[in-house]
Structures are given as C-alpha cells and as structure tokens.
C-alpha cells in the first residue's frame, strides 16, 4: 500500500536547519510502525513537488509545518484544495499538526491562535470516541505538541475523538476517510528538543521548562502509529490483523 506524505516544512538552505530532517524522521517513524507492505512517498510541497493525481497513492498524510494556515503562501492554498479533493472523492487522508488544521479550515472549520499561548512538549488527552481502527485502544493518548494556532471550530461533518483544556479539538474524524490529530506521533525526542531550543524566545520560561521536563515521560507514538496504518488498511478493505491484546 503506497502512502503519500505531503511534507509542508519549508526549510532554509542552511544544512544545520533541523527542519530539513523532518522527512527522514517521518520515514523512520513510518518504517518502525507500519507493516512492510506499506511504502511512503514524500512530496515536498513547499518546493512545488506535488502528486500528479489523487490516485497516485492509496492514502495521504498532510504533515507538520512551521507555517500557519493564515500565512499567504500559494502552496498552503493548494494544500487546502487537495484536502477538499480528498474529501469529495473520499480518499483516505490523515492530518498531523499543521495538516490537522489545514483539513479543518478547508472543510468549513476555523483555526486561530490560542488565547492560552503555545502548546509545547508532551501532553495527554482523554479519548472520547473509539473508531474501529483505533487499536490498541487507549483511554488517554500522550503525544508531543508544538503549536500556537489550533482548530477552534470543527467542520460540520466532523466527529470529535479527543481534546483537552488547552486544545478542545485535538483529534477528529470526518466520515470514515479522514483522521486528524494536533499532536505529533512522528516527533522524536531529538527533533522536539531542537524545536524547543529554536523557539525558546517565543515561549515563556515556564512553558519552556515544563515542555523540556515533559520529554522524559512516555509517549504513545507506537499506538498512534498502529492507528494510522490500520486506518489506511481499513479504508482500502485490507484484512486487519488483531493487535497484541487480541482485539481487532
């Protein structure tokens, strides 16, 4: 099964820019958490590298970015059009972080800066609704976060899956073909710590220190990685094997 990653990180030409490693980091996450019959194909959309057609891949992921959806970049507009096309054609689509916001905004929701400031570091949220592909089942999901903007109104067709006091609409689904999550299962500790250091001047000292300490806590990347590949398999009619605790 071929999955397309729309990489929205606009990197500088500086070889020391840690953001250049996002694609490779996502590939490692994909290799570690997806079955061997899945493959990942990366499209650097900020460099005008786009899919030729929706059917070029069996499913799509819109990933993270340091940009905001209200920034005036033509590729952001094109990403929203791509999300709308996936929805109209019911092509399997996952949004992570920035991608989570792109999908919501494109389909009639709203995205704004949080009045509570930055969401940074590892946070947990209670799962409110369980989808069939959310195996292993979790009561609470903990992931890394790095956002100032967030979804403030869901599209009308969306089902809220999870949220917390800082980010009410942290995870949602639309129909059976869209899954979106504000947290970052793909962020490893090294990338998250570099992000915190690069953005330290934008964070309060309390926010920075709390986020840094949070990186020592366990994260649910393994579980969410399982959700993601099961989501794609579920949409494409593949047989989904049981998880280790015996539930499908």
Give an overview in words.
- This protein has 248 residues and is α/β, with parallel strands linked by helices.
- It has a single domain (2-235), classed as Rossmann fold.
- It is 29% helix and 24% strand.
- The protein has helices at residues 22-33, 74-89, 98-106, 189-198, 205-214, 221-235, and strands at residues 2-7, 39-44, 59-62, 93-96, 110-113, 119-127, 140-147, 149-153, 158-163, 171-174, 178-181.
- The chain has a 9-stranded mixed sheet with strand order 2-1-3-4-11-10-9-6-7, sandwiched between helices. The protein has a two-stranded antiparallel sheet with strand order 5-8.
- Helix 2 links the parallel strand 3 (59-62) and strand 4.
- Helix 2 (74-89) crosses helix 3.
- It is globular, with a radius of gyration of 17 Å.
- The mean pLDDT is 91.
Query: Do you know the CATH topology?
Result: Rossmann fold
Helix count, DSSP H or I runs of 4 or more residues: 6
Q: In the CATH hierarchy, what is the superfamily? A: Class I glutamine amidotransferase (GATase) domain
Mean pLDDT: 91
Name the CATH class.
Alpha Beta
Radius of gyration equals 17 Å
Shape: globular
The share of residues in extended strands comes to 15-25%
Low-confidence stretches: none
Estimate the helix proportion, in percent.
25-40%
Which structural class best describes the helix and strand composition? Answer: alpha/beta
Task: Quote the distance from N terminus to C terminus.
Answer: 20 Å
CATH architecture: 3-Layer(aba) Sandwich
């Amino acid at each position: 099964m071929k999955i397309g990653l729309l990489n929205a990180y606009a990197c500088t030409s500086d070889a020391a820019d840690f953001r250049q490693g996002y694609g490779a980091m996502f590939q490692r996450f994909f290799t570690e958490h997806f079955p061997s019959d899945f493959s990942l194909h990366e499209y650097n959309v900020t460099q005008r590298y786009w899919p030729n057609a929706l059917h070029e891949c069996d499913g799509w992921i819109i990933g993270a970015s340091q940009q905001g959806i209200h920034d005036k970049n033509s590729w952001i507009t094109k990403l929203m059009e791509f999300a709308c096309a996936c929805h109209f054609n019911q092509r399997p689509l996952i949004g992570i972080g920035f991608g989570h916001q792109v999908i919501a905004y494109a389909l009639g929701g709203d995205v704004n800066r949080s009045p509570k400031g930055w969401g940074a570091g590892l946070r947990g949220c209670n799962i409110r609704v369980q989808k069939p592909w959310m195996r292993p089942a979790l009561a609470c999901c903990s992931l890394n976060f790095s956002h100032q903007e967030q979804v403030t109104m869901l599209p009308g067709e969306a089902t809220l899956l999870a949220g917390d006091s800082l980010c009410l609409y942290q995870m949602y689904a639309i129909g059976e073909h869209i899954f979106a999550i504000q947290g970052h299962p793909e962020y490893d500790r090294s990338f998250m710590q570099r992000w915190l250091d690069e953005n330290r001047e934008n964070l309060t000292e309390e926010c920075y220190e709390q986020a840094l300490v949070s990186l020592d806590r366990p994260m649910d990347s393994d579980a969410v990685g399982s959700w993601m590949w099961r989501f794609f398999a579920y949409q494409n009619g593949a047989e989904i094997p049981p998880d280790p605790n015996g539930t499908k």
